[in-house]
Automatic annotation (TrEMBL):
GO terms for cellular component: cytoplasm. This is Two-component system response regulator YesN. InterPro entries: CheY-like_superfamily, Homeodomain-like_sf, HptR, HTH_AraC, HTH_AraC-typ_CS, Sig_transdc_resp-reg_receiver, Tscrpt_reg_AraC-type_HTH. PROSITE patterns: HTH_ARAC_FAMILY_1, HTH_ARAC_FAMILY_2, RESPONSE_REGULATORY. It comes from Paenibacillus endophyticus. Keywords: Coiled coil, Cytoplasm, DNA-binding, Phosphoprotein, Transcription, Transcription regulation, Two-component regulatory system.
Amino acid sequence: MKILIVDDEPRHRRGMLNLILSFRPEDKILVAKDGVIALELIRSEKPDMVLTDIRMPNMDGLEFLKLLQGESHKPKVVMVTAYNLFEYAQAAIHHGAYDYVLKPVDSDQVEKLLRRIEAELDMESQQHSESEALKQKLNLTLSAYRNRLLVKWLNGDLTPDELAEMDQIEGLNGKGIIVFTEIAVDPDKRRSFDSDAFLSSLKQCWSNVGEAFSFSPNTLADSFVRAITIILTPEGLTAIQRADIRTHAERLEARWIMYGQISHGIGTKCQSMQAEGAMAYRYAQTARSYSFYDCWNGVVFYDELLSPNELLSMDTEKLYKLLQSGDLDAAKEQCKVAFNNLASNGHTNPALIKESAVLTLIKLKSRSRNLVDQQIGSVLSNSAAIEVPACQSFEEILELLELRLRDVYSAIQPSQSEKDVILAEDCLRWIEEHVQEELTLERAADRFFFNPSYFSTWIKQQTGRTFSDHLVEARMRKAQSLLNANRKIYEVASACGYSDTKYFCRVFKKHHGMSPASYKHTTSQRSDMG
């Protein structure tokens, strides 16, 4: 124990000190010469008990007892005096003295007294601990019940009796905002993550904005921990207040970044929290989902969201043709541009982005089903059914689509040589069928979904001749056929796609070594000779 001896006589102080230490050497003994000094020591040292004389200068023992009643720390006080007067004892007990001892003190009596006081202090300490534990348990129970009530209120599930209880919760009739928070906890750190400490940090964070209290909606999905904060503030969501909210959110993020990314959705301002809170909560949940886009930096205000009427403007057939032609980079760029346009700078509902990604993958699978193996088809199906819905950000969607485009591209390439032969034959056949028309490299490339520059290189690789060579060859073959049929030269030129007859004649002569007229004459002579 820690014991304070108060006596104006030095000899008596030393005597009591030595007496106690003789049978309780482990105790800490303090001494004071009057009540004034004793009060100061009680405030600073907080002794367990006090042995004090009654008659002392400056402040006697009885005055000391009276003033001690106003102190936060109240040790057990034993009055020690040489005056065996009833009125002293009565006054001492009246003012809170634990016991009354006469001088000269008996050592056995003092030892028994100290043991009795120590036993009582131990019992009181145990009772206090039990009381505090019970109080804490009760507070936790009440807090859990209040949180459950608030969650039911926000979800619109309160019974009439519970609605009446809501009236007892202070502040809900005032103005304020609701913040819906989610932290994606790293699975490896889930066991060390302290949800209560996180809620405490949230409350501390948002208390910079207004009177705040945070609680859990009692939902844990995979590694996501969610929380709701009600902030009572008379201010509107001004530009300054929004900037403050973003600043405090950044500080909170810095503190918890070791566990995962944090995102917040802020609902609309409530003029009456109790009347409008449920709707504001739904708005806050919606706003938080838009943190899917990195451009919001994890803090989204519902009233800052726009309503774009975007649809995915991407030709999946053209996308596939780019992959088929070997232009993977162009295919990736087309896909990226289309989805960035759809995203509208983070204002398009993330669900629409995911739906469009799923549709793109399904179309790619359908278009390539006869050209890729079953494994690639399964990969595309798995991405559409599982991986896209699991994506937590727009960047993840883009990365996933790029990976699947690369997979399709790689699957097409091993059998591309055979397909190239067939496609080249289709191109030459198309040229033969359209020689009368104005044919250009660009028109042919567009017809077969090629980039013009790539098409020019590709057809030469496949056939050993340029597009122009094939076009002239096809036209000259048709010209021969028509001249053999004794058609007029200008008619033949027009039928072969030449609007200038003289130019046709020059091309024909260069190709066959004679003019159309000479060819016609020679052919006619051969016929006559036959």
